[in-house]
Amino acid sequence: MQEQQRLLAQTQVRAPFAGMLTWLMAEEGASVGTGQLVARVSELNNYKVEASLSDFHARALSAGQQVLVEQGNVTLRGEVQTVLPEIQNGTIKLLVTLREPHHAMLRNKLRVEVNIITEQKQHTLLADAGPAFNGRGPQDIFVVRDGLARKTSIIIGASDGKSVEILSGARAGDQLIISDTSRYKERDSVRVAQ
Length: 194
Hints:
This protein is mainly beta. The protein is 5% helix and 45% strand. It contains one helix and 13 strands. The strands form three sheets. Strands 8, 9, 10, 11, 12 and 13 form a six-stranded antiparallel beta sheet that branches. A five-stranded antiparallel beta sheet has the order 3-6-5-4-7, with no helix packed on it. Strand 9 and strand 10 form a beta hairpin.
């Protein structure tokens, strides 16, 4: 009887920690060998992020880079743990460890936006990104001064999709028109109604 109870105890699979069942072998009555995967349990207080992006950016990635993970209005900091070497369908995957892996916002299979910091600068002039900006380099942007928007040549540096770096051509406090101004591209100035 004790031998049967011991065998029965060995057939029960228990996770060594509390968590959420995310996968279970679906074949009833299937033979299971030693070490075969029968279930997956996710820890509810130790999340990581798996991110994928175009392999075009693979050269700019390395382990240890700082990362901002965003979901709604919550931003979590982390760093690239591993860049997986395999490229599938033009995408590369990387694993991100979070500074707060137990944050209340995190859930299993949650989709988040991951921003990898590839460059940092101090004391830079920034403007909100908008349709008026088109990549890096010199561009003509309308700068508003005294109710008149004048076409001004500025040089754009790095961007994170939300802000752009102004290398020259504008100064702190200037009002830039960042919306689409392509219909005024032939004009040197436009009067702005307040």
